[in-house]
Amino acid sequence: MKRAEEFINHKEIMASLADAKEKAKDLAYVNSILDKCETCTVLSHREAAVLLECEDKTIRERMRTVANKIKQSIYGNRIVLFAPLYLSNYCVNNCKYCGFQHCNEKLPRRKLTQEEIRREAIALQDMGHKRLALEVGEDDVNCPLEYVLESIKTLYSIKHKNGAIRRVNVNIAATTVENYRRLKEAGIGTYILFQETYHKPTYEAMHPSGPKSNYAYHTEAMDRAMQGGIDDVGVGALFGLYDYKYETIALIMHAEHLEEEFGVGPHTISVPRLKPASGVTLENYPYLVDDESFKKLVTVLRLSVPYTGMIISTRETKEMRNELLHVGISQISAGSCTGIGGYAEENRTEEDTAQFELGDHRDMDQVLTELIEDGYIPSFCTACYREGRTGERFMQLAKAGQIHNVCQPNALITLKEFLTDYGSERARAAGEKLFARELERIGNEKVKEKTKEYLKKIENGERDFRF
Ligand code: SF4
Ligand code: SF4
């Protein structure tokens, strides 16, 4: 198996970017790459570099148009919603950009008890959430794997009113194959781990101490996760630590490596941008990504890895999130709290215990209603993982263009659940118009009739249907 510095090959990234500078001037060539994108072909990192380097206005406009086309043909106008759930902010690492870093003495440290997790699960269910991303700092003493496993069990076990947490994705520190196997057995959805930066010298400077300082161990984590049987993995880079072009090409190389070794690329790519946090200002970060470059890199990722879902968090403002939805984002968090225990507490205390500052403070109902009014279908679907459509099986369906046939009805079913149980009047009114329009877009008559039947049953109190 290739090692970290072989599959994230620094020389190759630099050569790709240098070569792309020349090639990007040949507009006929750039257009030929975009012709490939029109058919949802996966690009090589060399081709992606050319798109990244191209500054021609007409081409940039075409890039946006084609990215939107890909988004429409694979993901339709559906946007999957989820919430992060922070369990513990104890951490032995000292990542310089993170409010949870060990040496941040100002931060009150907290870890939720199982009873508190129960309360968080109920509060999240009352908001309408079905999908969570669990977040913990790295600390084997205060937050061992056993605690994470027990917490997952607790979250899946709570059934409050008509609510349920149906998919728990997990973001924990790089660990062993054996531990990944245990996470898989606990029924996790996606295993998420951000590389932060693929540029080794920057990585080492940003992570001066603690287990995370080992670049190779961290970079090879997804290989171990796959060896442990987890076939849905979510990668990401923290944009702003190093040159965004370098990180974008490295992300694509990481995807190429996973595809080559395991036959399946990452399930999702996250694109967080560096934000201020407790004890962290942005003064000493020369590579912060401006809005235009950020939109460009998201567009290039969408064009390059069409079958990989793309996630944006509430770090970004409403305006930026809306623009990125247009060029490729397929999942967003909503109503998020990045502090410990913030969902259940009356007066949210996230400012005290949060990992970073939020850019979008709208509540769940607001986010959802505005998505509907903008023509999107908010979805709480968790069907694939529960039907065993993961890893290669999922990718085969996605690449054959068939996943769309289940995503669309599942989105409508789960949205109906939300509106019936938690929706405001405004959300319900917007939802009714959406159902009238979107049911007609289901091509298969049998599926359309079945979906209508499920929607009726939901009105009559039944829950949890799926294709
Ligand atoms: Fe700890 Fe993760 Fe924050 Fe690093 S990024 S300090 S590992 S919580
Ligand atoms: Fe995701 Fe599968 Fe649901 Fe589509 S059907 S939204 S791919 S879980």
Your description of this structure?
With 467 residues, this protein is of the alpha/beta class. The protein is 49% helix and 9% strand. It has 21 helices and nine strands. It has helices spanning 4-7, 10-23, 27-38, 45-53, 57-75, 114-127, 145-157, 177-185, 200-206, 215-219, 221-227, 244-262, 291-304, 318-327, 350-353, 364-373, 383-386, 391-399, 404-421, 425-439, 445-459, and strands at residues 78-88, 131-136, 167-171, 191-192, 233-236, 268-270, 309-312, 331-333, 377-379. Strands 1, 2, 3, 4, 5, 6, 7, 8 and 9 form a nine-stranded parallel β-sheet that branches. Helix 5 crosses helix 13 (291-304). The longest helix has 19 residues, at 57-75. The radius of gyration is 21 Å and the shape is globular. The mean pLDDT is 95. One iron/sulfur cluster binds at residues 80, 379, 381-384, 403, 406-407, 410.
Features:
globular, 9-stranded parallel sheet, alpha/beta, 467 residues, 21 helices, single chain, 9% strand, binds iron/sulfur cluster
